[in-house]
Amino acid sequence: MTMRRLVGRIRSDRDLRLFVLRGTLVAVTAALCLDIANQLLFFEGWPAALRSWLFTVLFAIIVAMPLFNLVGRAHREAETARAEAEAIGRTDPLTGLPNRRAMMELSETHLGTMVLAIVDIDRFKAVNDTYGHLAGDEVIRRVGRMMAAELGRYGPLCRIGGEEFALLSRDAPDEVVEALRLFRERIAAVPLLVGEAAVQVTLSAGVAVRRPGASFMEVFAEADRALYDAKRDGRNRIAFAPGAALRA
């Protein structure tokens, strides 16, 4: 542990007192152990074999055990740091949602029938051009948070890039589509207040259903083409991949 991290943990006077107390106890204990070792190892009345055995035991107590503890702590900290780095690598920093990499990994656990909805914020470039990129980021955050609150119960919601989100669900396709339709209507009905600006937001979505035997990339391509159809047909709507047999 570096000195900076150690100092960072000392948050109050109470923490400081505990730190000093523990350090003092460690120092006193070490001094006593060394004194005992000195008395035992150099006491002429002990046979050489016994002194050797005592030296081994004291070495284990004074040196080896703290060393093993230090190595174990370093290993645990390294594992914690690795896990945190892995989590960061699967998380979108703007919204806190799983990212595209996480979506690909999640798709491996969603075997069999699966609903995939790709949702896009309509005319997002105009939002950036009109209100600025900071406002655009806030729109993405707000839409992601609202979508996660209302649709997250159906399955993982991921931000897969730019203004696009993806919902993976094992639930009944009609239920997922109905929830998505209601959410799209609510978003369109009330502008989002971003600072002093009222930003009108609408959403388009493409929905596909994966049947057993189809790969995730196949169903993703179908949902992406359906999203393109929704954009082409006027935006603010849901379109379906061929064979989805769903109604908006």
UniProtKB/TrEMBL annotation:
Enzyme class: transferase
EC number: 2.7.7.65
Gene3D superfamilies per the UniProt record, alphabetical: 3.30.70.270
GO cellular component, one term: plasma membrane
A molecular function (GO) term: diguanylate cyclase activity
Keywords from the UniProt entry: Membrane, Transmembrane, Transmembrane helix
One BP term from GO: cell adhesion involved in single-species biofilm formation
Superkingdom field: Bacteria
Key word Transmembrane helix present: yes
UniProt catalytic activity: 2 GTP = 3',3'-c-di-GMP + 2 diphosphate
Chain ranges passing through the membrane: 20-41, 53-72
Occurrences of domain GGDEF (ranges): 112-243
Statement: the UniProt record of this protein carries the keyword Methyltransferase: no
Entry protein name: diguanylate cyclase
